Amino acid sequence: MSEAVSDAVSDTVADEGTSRPKPALRGTPTRPNALPYVSFNQLRSFHAVAVAGSITAAASLLHVSQPTVTIQLRQLEAHYGVELVRRTPRGIRLSELGESLFTITKQLFALEGEAVELLNSAGCTLRGELRVGGVAPYFVMRLLSAFNKAHPSVTMTLLLDNSATIIRKLVDQEIDVGIVGQTALDSRLHALPYSRQDVVLFCRDDHPWAGRQGVELAELADEALVLREIGSTSRLMLERALQEHGIVPRVTLEVCREGVREAVVAGFGLGITTDVEYVPDRRTRMLRILDADVFTEAFAVCLRDRRAVSVTRAFMTTAEEFFERSRQ
Hints:
This protein is of the alpha/beta class.
């Protein structure tokens, strides 16, 4: 039986001898105290189209045929006499009403996911999927290993990016938890402090400063710098320190974390990282900042209103225990 037909049949299944009320026509008021009704499968098809961006991708996401998605989407629009999706030569776009409905369905299907996780974890073994975001492998891998040992039946995925991107994806519920370095955390997040790291510089092995232990900020006024992309906490903290000392940095290159070391070796200037992330390399030398306390902090974070989700709660508990052991 196709999902569209199954949906239509399920809408008329008798419940304890009484048929479920048929959905009211558009503009027709529902009976007082009656639960509002909308086809969940039609909403699911709309949500899949909004997430995937096309009928084909939505059908693949739902594991149904393309006609099924099309029919359910058209039924939803026809029932309420609205336009949710616009078909353009460049593909599918949501209407203004569709965008508003998408905001609601994201919450709706997030709650559905919580219900599934609750049922899956009702037994002794925690199951489900955990989407993790991290700022660097150093900060996140050992914690993920500890979580995996405690909950081996949970499937994990990991996204590595800068703190600003990880926090944005958390707020948008594209990931569940994160390890970030941020001085001003979003108020919507629950955060557990992990560790503190000094921001350091590093130079090529033939640089005049290669034999030194460190530098003062004033010495950076005329030095070429290789900085991380905007959104990097280490960059933010260094720029803040330089600004406090009245120094305008001379930036020769902005590059992602993985490219900083090779840019320094290629001669673009001094690089920036933290002491725990600096990887000893015969081609480079680390330089500490001698006259200022420039540092970042690492936190495990999740959305406050999703702390009760079983896998999220388990991860944050593991993080708290792991951080305590690390401090000891």
